[in-house]
Amino acid sequence: MVGLEPKHTAVRSPESNGMAESFVKTMKRDYISIMSKPDGLTAVKNLGGGLRTL
Q1: How far apart are CA 50 and CA 4, in angstroms?
Q2: Residue 38's CB: how many other CB atoms inside 10 A?
Q3: CB 16 within 8 A of CB 10
Q4: What is the pTM of this model?
Q5: Where do the Integrase catalytic domain residues begin and end (predicted)?
Q6: What residues contact residue 15 under an 8 Å CB cut-off, 6+ apart?
Q7: How far apart, in whole angstroms, are the C-alpha atoms of residue 49 and residue 32?
């Protein structure tokens, strides 16, 4: 496991928006940028496999 903990915040609050943006940025930087993605279908398959290994 990655050590993720569920956090509950109000919908559309600045805090929850910031947490979501930070998560997406981390995923792009640490996982998506190093995956093979010759086309959209391959990219989606690789991302799904990468998430299962976390």
Answers
A1: 15
A2: 8
A3: yes
A4: 0.50
A5: 3-40
A6: 9
A7: 11
